[in-house]
Amino acid sequence: MAQYHLMFTLRLALLAVAVCACQTTGLAAAEPQALRYTITSNNRVAGSEIDTYFPDGRVECTFEFNDRGRGPKISANYQFDSNGFPLRVDETGNDYLKAPVDEHFEIKDGTAHWRSTAEKGEAPAGAFYVSNNGAAAEQAFLVTALQNAKGAPVRLFPAGEARLERLTDVTLNDHGETLHVTDYAITGLSFEPQTMWLDDERRMFAIPGTWFAFLREGWEKTNDQLYAIDIKMRDQRYARLAKELAKHPTHSVAIEHVRLFDSEQGAMREDQTVIVTGDRFAAVGPAGSIQLPEDADRIDGRGKTILPGLFDMHAHAQALDGILNIASGVATVRDMGNDIDQLRSLQDQWQNGTAIGPRVWKSGFIDGHGPFQAPTGLYADTEAEAEAAVNRYADLGYVQIKVYSSLKPEFVPGIVKVAHSRGLRVSGHIPNGITATQFVEDGADEIQHINFIFLNFFASQVKDTRTPERFTAVGDNAAKLDLQSKRVNDFIALLLAHHTTVDVTLATFEGMFTGRPGQVSPDLAPVLKRLPAQVQRGAYSGGLPVTAANDQLYKDSYRAMLAMTKRMYDAGIPILAGTDAIAGIMLHRELELEVRAGIPAAKSLQIATFNAARLLKQDKELGSIAQGKRADFLLVEGNPAEHISDIRRCRLVMKEGTLYNSAELYAAVGIQPAE
Questions:
Q1: In total, how many domains does the chain have?
Q2: 472 and 98 in contact (C-beta within 8 Å)?
Q3: Burial class of residue 521 in the structure, from the number of CB atoms within 10 Å of its CB (0-12 exposed, 13-18 middle, 19+ buried)
Q4: What is the pLDDT of residues 570-617, one digit of tens each?
Q5: Of 208, 225, 242, which closes a domain?
Q6: Do residues 321 and 439 share a domain?
Q7: How many CB atoms neighbour CB 176 within 10 A?
Q8: Burial letters for 241-279: b for 16+ Cβ neighbours within 10 Å, e otherwise?
Q9: Is the pTM of this model over 0.85?
């Protein structure tokens, strides 16, 4: 569930946007005042924050959050000017992956200076410093600074600008008290507006949610009420974008003289013409052999390549992902773990067109309760509960079961038996206490994540794969594993004998193992300059903490992950292309990494199109451009079978006959189009 880690890390950086204007609120008191907050994950207490306001205007915040052994622990101190801009910020502790945080900002002689493990800079004073790490309360302070600007945008350090929108307000009644709170949205910090609830004294009250929720102590029961309002506002925004950006052709669409990727054969066909009528491909063939309808909307495909809509086979769908995916040519995703009701709502919106997004195939997530339990899905602590969870997902139309690390491993054979009897595949993390070999022998159809392939060989060295040890043990040992050894050969033979698929998620681990503070993370480097200014900063934060002694070892271990992927591919093990990271743009990186591993570009494209459709048993309808199939395609500049990075140069995308301009979609989430 690294996507959750990535998006939470981005969210945490964005929560730090506000080191600002307490004294402007007029709340200073004779004695320090403390506000306490509870952080929950899927209704389970996972952390806390304490914000202390001092009479001289200083604010001290402590913030801590535990996500399956990962999570930040931050102490922050702030001082402000009369406009609510920070004069001084000091933050220490550790970040989500437990790397040190040592971040400082100050105004001195009219110049702003900032430094951290990720960056260092200076500029003339007069903008609002956005910290990389900080307390959730900081968003409330930025709201105050924006209100002081009286509707004008506020420039940000190191780059960008923020704007404020007041969404709505509500009066809450709980535990015998009444409190009026207001919902605000800040734009300019991320791909979409960041929302938060403030009380009438303009102090942080809540950031409601499911996987991550932040609420004033004593008011935790108001989460669902506030979150429902946020979801309604969010859905209205995405509905407006769908009306503005989705195009519904009234005539046939003809793409002429285009290079076509034949995904069934894994080869390019030159000078082809493709005609779409309604939501189907009406004709496909050499340009000279296709008769165009008289009223067709004609698109010149010369110099471009048309490919079937891409598949992301490891998603954790969120509302933002819809536009990110379609802009990137991803027309289908397989969700690998989510809230049942929220995913159903997203799926309905994306499929009926009230929001822009891909079609969704759903995997049901099952974990066991415990200190490292996942923040979503269903939980099973007995065999009967595990069987009931499988049947519930099957009744809801799910196509697969995904088990997780805290599930009791003895439940796996029973889950497999029930799932297979209901026509569902079984995959997952390897539950703590067994190896990948045992998981496959118990009947699992698929393994998530390349790190679990390596952990199969380090069982005696790893105490608990529920913890971050499932990453660090691979960093410490993967480079030392002989990929031609008998035990590796035997394991690959086992995968072949059981027809096991591997969902490698290479892009998930690239930044984790090879990213270093202050350097651009290689997974985001190809797209960095296209991203919103404040999002770009996250690319410099680094991955797992390393020392001089193991820095190169972790990089070598990541290279071993690529080599193992190629080793399995050459042996005939089916490989899947999935992200478990930022939607859309990271699938492009996944394909680039497959090619870097040694898989031919055309075969990588085939993995993300026809092979994925075939695994989902949808190859009669999807996965290739052929007469009668559903009209999913992307049109890109260049030839990605020769230069895989051309897959980023997306110009047009169609999903079931609805046409989108990729640049317009990217612009809606603050991303520049590829050249």
A1: 2
A2: no
A3: buried
A4: 999 999 999 999 999 999 999 999 999 999 999 999 999 999 999 999
A5: 225
A6: yes
A7: 5
A8: bbeebbeeeeebbbbbbbbbbbbbebebbeebbbbbbee
A9: yes
